[in-house]
């Protein structure tokens, strides 16, 4: 199945407020898709729906084989193992090294074999170009390095889809381009990457398929 995300006539509410109406979209393996729009336009709400944090009120939706329309609470942790989530503010544990930030997530998602944990951490550290930083604490890293740790954390369970919510929002232009390049490489490896941003400078560095969020609607740009 090439389709990892499929929404048909979906309606999304944030509490009582209609955020997005009549959304139909499909995302396949290896696609890099921008979610463009101002703050409050519904990009984050769409991502929250994908990882089971907001319910679908109308229409039908599925992600990585999970039916979001009838998603049960006990299924959410299993759905999230198929997804890698990267936030704007890194959300690293400040009292743990890079290695132990990754190890903590892995243990929380069921990894037990320390040899396999070490091998996987070394693998994702290499992918995000952080070799030699394993023992560093988050405060010893630059903003760009911290965001690369959060990408590594998103990769540990080998997700099918990466959801990046304003991942370059706190970074300078050069570092933003570096993060964008890493995420693009991940889509080239077969994962679907959804990259939410309102930064047109980042967007213009590398054009790709685009969903525009505006006034409760989502419009695809060719």
Description:
- The protein has 222 residues and is an alpha/beta fold.
- It has a single domain, classed as Rossmann fold (3-Layer(aba) Sandwich), CATH 3.40.50.
- The strands form two sheets. A six-stranded mixed sheet has the order 6-7-8-3-9-10, with helices on both faces. Strands 2-1-4-5 form a four-stranded antiparallel sheet, covered by helices on one side.
- Helix 4 packs across helix 5 and helix 5 packs parallel to helix 6.
- The longest helix is centred in the last third of the chain and has 16 residues.
- The radius of gyration is 17 Å and the shape is globular.
Following the backbone from N to C, one meets helices and strands in this order, namely EEEHEEHEHHHEHEHEE
- The SS-based structural class is alpha/beta
CATH class, named Alpha Beta
Strand content: 25-35%
Q: Determine the CATH superfamily.
A: P-loop containing nucleotide triphosphate hydrolases
Kindly provide the radius of gyration, computed on alpha-carbon positions and rounded to a whole number of angstroms: 17 Å
Q: Which residue ranges are poorly predicted, with pLDDT under 50 across at least 5 consecutive positions?
A: none
Rounded mean pLDDT is 92
Assigned CATH architecture: 3-Layer(aba) Sandwich
In CATH terms, what is the fold-level topology? Rossmann fold
Shape from CA axes?
Answer: globular
Distance between the termini: 24 Å
Largest sheet: 6 strands, mixed
